[in-house]
TrEMBL record, chain A:
Residues 20-438 form the DUF112 domain. InterPro entries: DUF112_TM. The chain crosses the membrane at residues 20-39, 45-69, 108-132, 144-162, 169-187, 323-342, 354-380, 386-406, 461-485. Coiled coil: none annotated. The lineage of its organism: Bacteria, Pseudomonadati, Pseudomonadota, Alphaproteobacteria, Hyphomicrobiales. The keyword Metal-binding does not apply. This is TctA family transporter. It comes from the Bacteria. Keywords: Membrane, Transmembrane, Transmembrane helix. It holds the Pfam family TctA.
From TrEMBL, chain B:
PANTHER family: BLR1237 PROTEIN, TRICARBOXYLATE-BINDING PROTEIN. This is Tripartite-type tricarboxylate transporter, receptor component TctC. Keywords: Receptor. SUPFAM superfamilies: Periplasmic binding protein-like II. Belongs to the UPF0065 (bug) family. It comes from Xaviernesmea oryzae.
From TrEMBL, chain C:
Pfam families: TctB. Residues 8-142 form the DUF1468 domain. This is Tripartite tricarboxylate transporter TctB family protein. It comes from Xaviernesmea oryzae. Keywords: Membrane, Transmembrane, Transmembrane helix. InterPro entries: DUF1468. The lineage of its organism: Bacteria, Pseudomonadati, Pseudomonadota, Alphaproteobacteria, Hyphomicrobiales.
Length: 501, 334, 147
């Protein structure tokens, strides 16, 4: 009964004309900045903070939240259309989403991503409404050793999802970890591999790496083989998904939603991990894993659902503990504090209208997103028909502006150019950039928690197996690795025998 | 009315562009002189050298709103984070000394002036103070299931068991670490430092009891204390504070122990006196506005306006104090 | 065979590993209990070196040569040049002019682009950027030239 009362209160709050208007403004703006590469939700929210001073706090939070999940949504659009991951979680979407676009199925990919995200958003909203406090306790269960093991699992799945040589994928991942080392060591404060450059003290900007390795090297690939690019433009087959697409997608969406809802709760990269884990899971479960990386719809549906569910549940630690799980959440805490609301365990009782209004508005926002985006799909697909000699300078310029906007400086643009060179080298040497990016994102988390775990245990390595969560995760990682490596060793042995005889 | 707000920004941008374009076309020399007469004649900027949403960011945003009303010009808050706050501070110091660019300077930068091996800016030489804005306390917290009920319990146990307890901080060079190092050095304790990256995981591990003790902020800890997830032992200010209720000052057990984080604004050192005093007036006026004051106080902060000269000498004293703590605690410059 | 992709990739990884290890040795390594900042980089560096050698070995046994056309190199070079130019010019020339210059350099990557087309595309993108980033979003980005 209580639950019903709360939902009624939420509906009441969210359905006021002002709140609906600002919710729409939020998701609209979010989609727009999500589509513009590099422009992330953090600078946008920072830009809009002054506007929220004059607003009712509930309205302000509803709008800011809309910007956040709207941008998660928009990010996959550029990933699919131009192979440009705007957010760390949309790197996975590039893998098969852009391949689908290349095969003339951009519309299908966009539609499945949108529908999957909507479903995931709806479920995750219900999850927050029903289980927020208990999920927050789940987040508390995760200590340093558990985070370390979770990252190991994530990295193992990155190596597994490589479709080329596992050895090279492993090397790329390590290279990513090394790139992630650059900057100030968070445990000792020493600066590593910065060569005295102050701009490097905080490490390399993710967007610079992603643009270099994905967007810029994709442009070069397209320029060097104009013929294949023209095919993309002309060969747009079905814009909308058909029955078989839906049949292939619904299970990955369900699994992705579950994974995302759970992992999204973990502070610091839970949502990103969930989309990668979902991809690895789908590839493992698929009856045709060889299609992954060549435009498999399951490789879009699962991770997109996971990513969106994770974005939604990442509100939980902030709303229930006052602990922001990422940069955007920290901004939200800031926005609330400007209105003298301190988020924390008591917010549900103290500000019920805010809590339940936000939750209901999330669902409304997701609904708005789908209404807004489905008609846009046709337009996006038409965008692919724009002559490439107009498209590519446009992408280059917008990327540069996007990178500039992150810190308001040109340093990261230079970095992006350098990573572009590496990206080109990588594609020439048939190394995959995806494991590198994941290594880059998760490497710092891995080292930090590894060292912190050993600091806490005073040098006892057994802490990684005595913690039950960590132990299970490590076992899972080892099993995954065995499953993948064992057949390839067996195959190689067979090939060797065949050669000998 | 609120939607109006949404559009004044862009419209202003267009105007600014057209106006400055016209000036550029007509030869901008004459306009330079015209501008100097009435300060401020256009938009001002306060650089916050930290992430948006950080404590100092919120303080500046609250203040900027009030200052802009009094100066009759809008103030843009620009986040230029990185390098422990030193990158944004350095870029502000090297902007035109015309009063249009201000910067948030906090205890973090004072600490980093001694903590960094290569310091990109000399705050005392390159900046001059406008005003101190706020000071605030930190809260000594332990997990709810901890056996320590008071500051005395903790100090006694830590003294008898050197090297056994571990303390959490939100990072190397953070207020939390420096405060604990200061306490260690005053009482003669041996605690193991476990640094985190920001408050998120630090609070999680404190609540779960994976670390023994740590200093929390007034924006994060009180809620967790109230919910019974953490226990507060004491505060670092000399007087009891409203947000922290009955928590006693640590100085009761450790006479003379006082650490407060602080925030203020500065401008490039070459900024003329009359512009500084105009900015100072606007800022102190804004700080006496009951609404702004109330909002800052509800965040657990003490509003402490000061004269430009007072702020300069305060910054000087703080830099020396932390250099001393860093040296005595044996924290190596990185 | 000498320039097989895997041999080159292995060499590349080996160089990175060497740099990483050299950098790590200069840092405090520490012990498992008190890990210094160099502990983890050293581990990762050594691991990468081992894998790099394995990749090279594989490349020597079976490997396909790298294909690289002149046109590709030209395209790659000019795209990077365009990004570099953007970074360098933005603070001096302001957004619209920088965009024009960048577009010019980038479009040179495609050999068949005519000057007229370059100019029209450049102007439209510059206009778009000014309207979107300078005007509508009001990003703090330099718009006018200043030296």
């Amino acid at each position: 009964m209580d639950f019903l009362n709360n939902i009624v209160l939420g509906l009441d709050t969210a359905f006021s004309a002002t709140n609906l208007l600002y919710c729409f403004a939020g998701v609209f703006l979010g989609t727009a900045i999500g589509v513009l590469p590099g422009l992330g939700p953090v600078p946008t929210i920072a830009m809009l903070l002054p506007i929220t001073y004059t607003l009712d706090p509930v309205t302000a939070i509803i709008m800011l939240a809309g910007i956040y999940y709207g941008s998660q949504y928009g990010g996959s659009t550029t990933a699919i259309l131009v192979n440009l991951p705007g957010e760390s979680s949309s790197v996975v979407t590039c893998l098969d989403g852009h391949e689908m676009a290349k095969r003339g199925r951009a519309g299908v990919a966009l539609a499945i991503a949108a529908l999957g995200s909507f479903f995931a958003g709806t479920v995750a909203t219900l999850v927050i409404a029903g289980f927020a406090p208990s999920l927050a306790n789940f987040a508390l269960e995760f200590g340093a050793p558990d985070y370390f093991s979770l990252v190991v699992l994530g990295l193992v799945s990155a190596v597994i999802l490589a479709h080329g040589s596992i050895l090279k994928a492993f090397a790329s991942m390590l290279l990513g970890i090394i790139l992630g080392l650059i900057g100030t060591d968070s445990i000792s404060g020493a600066s590593r591999y910065t060569f005295g450059v102050v701009e490097l003290f905080d490490g390399i900007e993710f967007v610079a790496v992603a643009m270099g390795f994905f967007a810029f090297s994709e442009i070069i690939r397209n320029l060097s083989s104009p013929a294949s690019r023209d095919i993309v433009a002309t060969k747009i087959i079905n814009v909308w998904p058909n029955l078989s697409d839906f049949r292939k997608s619904w299970k990955p969406v369900l699994r992705g939603t579950a994974l995302g809802s759970l992992l999204g709760v973990l502070p610091g990269g839970g949502a990103t991990l969930s989309s990668w884990t979902s991809y690895a899971l789908e590839k493992r479960l698929s009856s045709h894993p060889e299609e992954f990386g060549k435009g498999a719809i399951e490789g879009v549906a699962g991770p997109e659902a996971a990513n969106n569910a994770g974005a939604q549940t990442s509100f939980i630690p902030m709303l229930t503990l006052g602990i922001p799980s990422n940069g955007v959440m920290a901004m939200m805490v800031g926005a609330m504090m400007i209105h003298s609301i301190v988020p924390g365990p008591s917010i549900i009782e103290k500000e019920p209208a805010l809590f339940w209004g936000l939750i209901v508005s999330m669902w409304i926002g997701n609904l708005m997103l789908i209404v807004l985006n489905m008609p846009l799909i046709g337009l996006w697909v038409k965008l692919l028909k724009v002559p490439y000699d107009i498209m590519f300078p446009f992408i280059v310029v917008v990327c540069c502006v996007g990178i500039y906007s992150i810190k308001g400086g040109v340093f990261d643009i230079y970095m992006a150019a350098i990573f572009g060179v590496f990206g080109f080298l990588f594609s020439k040497l048939e190394c995959e950039p995806a494991p590198l990016l994941l290594g880059f994102i998760l490497g710092p988390m891995m080292e930090e928690n590894f060292r912190r775990a050993l600091l806490i245990s005073r040098g006892e390595f057994s802490i990684f197996v005595t913690s039950p969560v960590s132990c299970v995760l490590l076992l899972l990682a080892v099993t995954l690795l065995m499953v993948v490596v064992a057949p390839s060793i067996r195959r190689r042995r067979k090939e060797a025998f065949a050669e000998e005889s | 009315m609120q939607l109006d707000n949404l559009w004044t920004g862009p419209r202003r941008a267009l105007l600014r562009y057209l106006v400055s374009g016209a000036i550029a076309l007509g030869g901008g020399l004459a306009s330079q002189d015209a501008r100097a007469t009435a300060f401020p004649s256009h938009e001002l900027t306060i650089i916050v050298p930290f992430e948006p949403g950080a404590n100092g960011d919120i303080i500046i945003r609250l203040l900027a709103e009030g200052m802009s009303k009094r100066l009759g010009q809008s103030i843009v808050v620009e986040n230029k984070s990185g390098g422990g706050g030193m990158i944004g501070t350095a870029s502000a110091a090297r902007s035109k000394p015309d009063g249009y660019t201000m910067v948030l300077v906090a205890n973090v930068q004072a600490v980093n002036s001694s903590l960094m091996k290569t310091v990109p800016i000399n705050i005392e030489a390159e900046l001059r103070g406008v005003t101190l804005i706020t000071k605030g306390t930190s809260i000594l917290v332990v997990p709810a299931k901890s056996t320590f009920q008071t500051v005395g319990d903790f100090l006694r146990y830590a003294k008898e068991h050197p090297g056994v307890l571990s303390y959490a901080s939100s990072g190397v060079g953070s207020t939390g670490q420096l405060t604990m190092e200061y306490l260690k050095f005053m009482v003669g304790l041996d605690l193991k430092h476990i640094p985190y990256k920001g408050g998120t995981q630090m609070y999680t591990d404190l609540v779960a009891g994976r670390v023994d003790i740590g200093f929390g902020s007034t924006s994060g800890a009180p809620e967790l204390i109230e919910a019974g997830k953490l226990r507060g032992l004491g505060i670092t200010s000399l007087q009891k504070m409203e947000v922290t209720g009955d928590l006693p000052p640590i100085a009761t057990d450790v006479p003379g122990f006082e650490v407060e984080h602080w925030q203020g604004i500065m401008v490039p050192a070459a900024t003329p006196e009359e512009i500084v005093s105009k900015l100072h007036q606007a800022a102190s006026n804004a700080l006496s506005d009951p609404e702004i004051r109330g909002k800052l106080e509800r965040l657990g902060l003490k509003v402490m306006a000061s004269s430009p000269a007072e702020f300069d000498s305060f910054v000087h004293a703080e830099i020396i104090r932390w250099a001393d703590v860093i040296q005595k605690a044996g924290i190596r410059p990185q | 065979m000498n320039l097989s992709k895997d041999v080159l990739a292995g060499t590349f990884f080996l160089i990175v590993a060497a740099i990483t290890i050299c950098g790590a040795v200069g840092l405090d390594i520490g012990s498992p209990e008190e890990m210094g900042p160099g502990y983890f980089p050293l581990t990762v560096g050594v691991l990468l070196a081992m894998i790099a050698v394995a990749v090279m070995f594989k490349g020597v046994k079976v490997g396909s040569a790298v294909e690289l056309s002149l046109q590709e190199l030209r395209g790659a070079g000019l795209i990077f040049a365009a990004v570099f130019v953007f970074a360098w010019a933005l603070d001096h020339l302001g957004l619209p002019i920088t965009v024009l210059v960048t577009t010019f350099v980038a479009m040179k990557a495609q050999s068949q682009a005519s000057l007229k087309r370059i100019a029209s595309v450049g102007l439209s993108i510059a206009l778009f950027c000014w309207l979107t980033f300078g005007f509508a979003l009001d990003l703090h980005i330099p718009l006018l030239p200043s030296w």
